[in-house]
Amino acid sequence: MLTRILQLEGFEVIEAATAKDGLRKLEHEVVDVIISDVKLPDINGIELTKTIKTAYPAIEIIVLTAYGTIGDGVTAIKNGAFDYITKGDDNEKIIPLVNKAMDKAVLQRRVSELETKLSSRFGFDRIVGTSPAIATAINLARRVAGTDTTVLILGETGTGKEVFAEAIHQASPRSAKPFVAINCSAFSKELLESELFGHKAGSFTGAIKDKKGLFEEANGGTIFLDEIGEMDHDLQAKLLRVLESQQFIKIGDTKPTKVSVRILAATNRNLQDEVAKDQFRSDLFYRLSVFQITLPSLRDRRKDIPVLAKMFIQQYASKVNTQITGATTDFYNKLEAYNWPGNVRELKNIIERAVIMCDGTELDTSVLPYEFDSSPITSNTSTFDLAAIEQQHIQRVLKHTQGNRAETARLLNIGIATLYRKLKEYGLE
């Protein structure tokens, strides 16, 4: 009778005569709500509730009995039941109760689906590659993700340091809280201090109102400090205080602000060399480098290049709505032979350009930039001067932007301060 009533209300109903039969059906059916009698032939319905909630926590359970007691009701709720109802009182209550339980179950399923999508978008699943070098980095990141340990991520520009930082945050107990990222090379000392720690109204010209800093915005979550090696020496001291005490003083304030923030940092510079030159505080370096992860360059994981390329081809073909299905063998061979000074980020940009330039259904070498022909390399990468390759790449981008340094920094995806440092280093000023 109850089955028929529920079916008339539009529910799809599955019946089971015993607990064993019901549990067997749960292995093959997707169920949102269970109505279970207490007096079952093989087990007590209240104990069954505990068993089901352990194995299927998203299912909502309504316990139904003709022998209701307060004790049984309390136990049923403790075991995870959505509600407990006595037969005889159920005629007008059961349908509204099932609807409420169904609403909760559907909401939980949607939350679970969103968490899965979030994990695939920002978690470790988005890191593509099976080479030993990247597998080692992923394994280290997974190990440290569940802790509150500060992590220093090392690697060349474009190797995916922020991707790793996001994945660590997503796999951490802080994942429900904010993930805030900032490139330390993109701001002057004064502006970076205000961005990180905030300021009080009137503390300097233009400070017309109180402003929260990124550490406050990230409270409870994670802050990612990219290009940490570019941070001013005085700000390094203030950051060290946050690491040690989880508090700081805003610009213009007199009392400390307390936060609970996990710090992840990244750099493409050798901080130990910077410490030796007195360009980076040794105490901050040792505090940041409690756990280090070094990301391999793309030329050190060449067998991952075709896999990454295929993924980017699929992404951009879908984005620009073309019928491109893949690429020629020569195209992939050219990709594997290239030195990739810009690493994964450069590969991604090259594929986006190639997809736009392609007129057919398959990418070939004609849609690759000229440097893929003018800069061939061999598998013996040790014979190449990486600094010279970086210098050549910067010169090409500068030429492309007609000397626009702000646009050059944007295309290289580095801070303007980093670009000026590189230009000075290579005598390109």
Could you please describe the fold and organization of this structure?
- The protein is an alpha/beta fold and 429 residues long.
- The chain has 3 domains: 2-119, Rossmann fold (3-Layer(aba) Sandwich), CATH 3.40.50; 125-296, Rossmann fold (3-Layer(aba) Sandwich); 303-425, Orthogonal Bundle (Helicase, Ruva Protein, domain 3).
- Helix content is 47%, strand content 12%.
- The protein is built from 19 helices and 14 strands.
- The protein has helices spanning 2-8, 19-26, 45-55, 70-78, 94-122, 132-145, 161-170, 189-197, 214-217, 233-245, 271-276, 282-288, 305-319, 329-337, 343-357, 371-374, 386-400, 405-412, 416-425, and strands spanning 33-37, 60-65, 83-86, 151-154, 179-183, 198-199, 211-212, 222-226, 247-248, 257-258, 262-267, 291-294, 326-327, 362-363.
- The strands form 5 sheets. A 5-stranded parallel beta sheet has the order 5-8-11-4-12. A 3-stranded parallel beta sheet has the order 1-2-3.
- Helix 4 links the parallel strand 2 and strand 3.
- Helix 10 (233-245) crosses helix 12 (282-288).
- It is globular.
- Mean pLDDT is 87; it is low at 375-383.
Topology of this protein?
Layout: H1 2-8, H2 19-26, E1 33-37, H3 45-55, E2 60-65, H4 70-78, E3 83-86, H5 94-122, H6 132-145, E4 151-154, H7 161-170, E5 179-183, H8 189-197, E6 198-199, E7 211-212, H9 214-217, E8 222-226, H10 233-245, E9 247-248, E10 257-258, E11 262-267, H11 271-276, H12 282-288, E12 291-294, H13 305-319, E13 326-327, H14 329-337, H15 343-357, E14 362-363, H16 371-374, H17 386-400, H18 405-412, H19 416-425
Parallel strand pairs: 1-2, 2-3, 4-11, 4-12, 5-8, 8-11, 13-14
Antiparallel strand pairs: 6-7, 9-10
Helix pairs in contact: 6-7, 10-12, 13-15, 17-18, 18-19
